[in-house]
Every structure is written in C-alpha cells, then in structure tokens.
Task: inverse folding
C-alpha cells in the first residue's frame, strides 16, 4: 500500500505542480506582451497628436491572441492549483504509512508546502486576476512594476517547491543511502 500511495503522491506532484510552476512563470511575460499589444501601433507618445505610420491600428490580432494566452495560463494555474491539493493529501497518507510524520525533514517540507500554497493562493493568483482585469478592460497596466512583482512572487513559489522536492529526495536521516 505504501508504494501505491507514494506513486500517486509523486504522480500528483508531477502532473499538478509542474503545470502550475510553468504556467505561473510564463504569465508575467505573456501579460507584458498582451499589454504592449493594447498600445496603438505608431502611437504618438510625444503629446503632439502627430500619430505616425499605422496610427489608430490597435494590433487587434496580436492583442487578442496575447490576451487569450494570458487567460489560458491563468486558467491552468487555477485549475492545477486545485488538483495540486492531492499532493499533500497523498503525501500525508504516504508519510503515515512510512511512520515518518514526526521527522524533521517532513515537518519542514509540510511548512514549506503550506507557505507555497499561501503564496500561490493569496498572492500569485489574485495578482494574475488583477492583471487580467486590466486586459479585459482594454487598458494598459496602471502600475508599471506589477508584472515584475508577480514574476518575483512566482519565483518564490517555484523556489519553495524546488526545496520541498529536494527534501523529499534527500530525506535527511534516510536509511536508503540515497
């Protein structure tokens, strides 16, 4: 039974957490491309009203495609975050069957997993939604560094998962010698 639980735990981590980390990492750059597409091609930024070649062309094809990409990336993050709840569920079941629930490496992993979940649920997903709302409104970003800060929090989320993964593989005090 332990091997089954461990297999499901590892598969859930690969299938659920992997897509979230990739999609969340891609989101800030995709958002910047979509936001740039909102600006008219040849738009006059000097304030003279002179326009330029292609003035008034909003680049709708590029903007629509870029905005659709951003929406898909956010949907992947939301859906796989929920699916990712299977990871700690099967992790606890596996740890219980192995009798390691009190081991320090596991407790640290649990705390880091909880912290990663908080970063994703309380910071990354809401910021993605806020940026999507700006795209849906058809307005360029109101805050210059919003996507950069989102990228930073996404990096923190990914780093937390990387540390948890290493702890799960190395397992300090393991008798396997791995």
Result:
């Amino acid at each position: 039974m332990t091997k089954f639980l461990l297999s499901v735990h590892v598969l859930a981590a690969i299938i659920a957490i992997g897509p979230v980390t990739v999609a969340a990492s891609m989101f800030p750059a995709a958002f910047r491309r979509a936001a740039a597409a909102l600006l008219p091609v040849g738009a006059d930024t000097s304030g003279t009203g002179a326009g330029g070649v292609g003035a008034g062309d909003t680049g709708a094809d590029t903007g629509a495609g870029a905005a659709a990409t951003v929406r898909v990336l956010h949907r992947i993050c939301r859906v796989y975050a929920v699916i990712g709840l299977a990871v700690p569920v099967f992790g606890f079941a596996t740890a219980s069957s192995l009798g390691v629930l009190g081991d320090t490496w596991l407790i640290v992993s649990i705390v880091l997993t909880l912290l990663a979940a908080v970063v994703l649920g309380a910071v990354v997903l809401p910021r993605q939604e806020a940026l999507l709302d700006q795209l849906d409104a058809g307005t360029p970003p109101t805050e210059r560094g919003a996507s950069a800060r989102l990228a930073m929090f996404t990096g923190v989320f990914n780093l937390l998962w990387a540390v948890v993964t290493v702890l799960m593989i190395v397992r300090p005090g393991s008798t396997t010698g791995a």
